[in-house]
Records
---
Amino acid sequence: MIEVKGISKSYGPIEALRDVSFGIAAGEIVGLLGPNGAGKTTTIKILTGNLQPDDGFVEVNGLDVLEHTREVQAQIGYLPETAPLYPELTVQGYLRMMSELRDIPEQDRVARISEAVYATGLAEHLTRPIGELSKGFRQRVGLAQAIIHKPRLLILDEPTIGLDPTQIVEVRHLIRRLARESTVLLSTHILSEVEALCDRVIVLINGRIRADAELSELASTADAILVLGRETSGVEEALLDLDGVEGVDFVQPVADSREPSPFPAYRVLGSGLDADLCPRIYDRARREGWPVRELRQDVRTLESVFNELATGS
Ligand code: ATP
């Protein structure tokens, strides 16, 4: 659906994007995640034909965005970081104006507006001026204009920024519903947003892609944690001897206690992402008669992965 190839963009001396490439298939919900200033908005502006890259190109459904800007924009629903809403217009008036700007044939306009209003839960607010609505409802109006022309691709820039926790839940719920009909790319600097909504995440840091993976894949690890009941000799050597083990770290488990636990623990580092080392470790422990207290696969949180990427560790 989207093919981004080697885009770079500088604003004077600031290199906002450097050789960014990724693809998004139809039906995916993809999160573009990155800290402030990472280049998310710049990427989205280029994708939607609102900014020209210095290098590289973007295709949407096989059409080059710069050569076929209007045709591409007709296929995209775009919610900018700050949607250009007109506070003095009523919800209905604004959506009517947007349906005209989107070249929706006159005979279809009422039906399209009704569908967008229904999808975004705005029916009771149709006659209210936009300026009188709460932030959450203004965001819904932004989403309604983004879907009014039934786009196949929805691009949302920080869709929940500035909303309160209840509004965030509502808007996320709404995005999930809209995603049944469209491919979605959303930018955010909030990890939980990606976890709540996306199948896949592209991590952008300092204008470069640092990761592009399914969420489950990114957080998965082949490492295992082994905790013994007392100090036992020869454990490290025996673990290193196992197939698929790349290294062994001795760790002090702190668990929930403030004091380091007295039990010796080992993080066994696996060499492949999908290998489960626990059965092999369990067999060895049984043969050697180790006093095993705990044996489990190590699980990384998305937060720790993100921090590792952000700090380059
Ligand atoms: P945020 O989460 O804070 O919105 P972002 O990931 O969307 O950040 P961008 O807005 O794309 O990041 O900005 C990337 C870099 O380019 C930043 O260093 C920013 O200061 C710079 N930048 C963006 N727009 C301009 C501009 N019009 N002129 C000069 N520099 C700009």
Note: The chain has a mean pLDDT of 88.
---
Amino acid sequence: MYCVRNITDDIYWVGANDRRLSLFENIHPIPKGVSYNSYLLLDESTVLFDAIDWSSCRQLITNIEHLLNGRKLDYIVINHMEPDHGASLQELLIRYPEVKVVSTQKAFILANQFGFCTEGHECIPVKEGDTMSFGKHSVKFFTAPMVHWPEVMVTFDTTDGVLYSADAFGTFGALNGKLFNDEMDFEKEFLDEARRYYANIVGKYGPQVQALLKKAAAIKDQIKYICPLHGPVWRSNFDYIIDKYNKWSLYEPEEKGIMIAYASMYGNTEAAAEALATELVKKGVTNVALYDVSTTHVSELMSEAFRLSHIVLASVTYNMGIYPVMHNFIADMKALNLQKRTFAIIENGSWACNVGGLMQKAIECDLKNCTVIEERLSLASSMLCNKAPELDVLADTLVDSLNEQ
Ligand code: FEO
């Protein structure tokens, strides 16, 4: 059965939802699923904007066939060739042998690397500022390298004001029948997943996202719809999502608040983290989030690190080093380019407590524009009552730092 939605009179959402995939890119859990968005324009020419993941190809074909109603498909515009979008291209080329493919030169190289064979089909490479007309509708192409792969472009339909934004403004989470942002409570239903998607998929590329936001700003008064490759279509309240993207890509915290991430073997470091959280709340700081790094997926930790201004790392010493899952979290913060955060440290070790120094060095050497609060809570095996004054000082220092920002 087809499942399509009108965006405008002659532009349709023809994508699919995937609730079967457990790990996006085989690494990020997606308990709420994900949508692969694709859009079809029925003009004098028929044009498909982006393909979808191979797993949902049948739904895409069903949707296209329904709308084409016997017409042929004339063009496929590929904004992003990553296989969660490009993998259906091969099947589309077999079904529509006369279709012309429009994309960047880099995307055609990637298509052939992935085995999405375009041989025998007319391939039209486009670059920044190029335009095409499909009848009533004209489009303009803007390159968006590294948002999130090097071949990415976005396409702007100047007739209806539709921005096909590729991965930009995308989110994890299936669509559940609701397509437009004004059909849902985005903040409640999608914001956490949008942030987790941003931080883990595009987070590393803040400067490139900033470059794209600048291009979008130049045409902002013409944009009526933002159509990303995952998640809801935006047709109102653009400032809300653009403001989020601006903050995330500048690595500015979204909120003043404290994330406490702890690595604990027998519950003693956890007890110290709990005690700190309690002290902070008693001192009036209620935006506190506590996470066990052993049981919280690192994509969730990264999302919270992008949200909050302060991060407390509490770790036991393990094999004379940083506890492996905490080490992984710190490595991910470096890989995803997290910046502009204030850190504090709780360290624990029963005979050679050196994890605090190692974490401080990793933050200072690997993370840009971050500071580490000097006061450190240092434990020998467990949080005994004689450590209460040190805990109090650490909590006070964090509260002061929070109030200064
Ligand atoms: Fe949804 Fe970068 O692919």
Note: The mean pLDDT is 97.
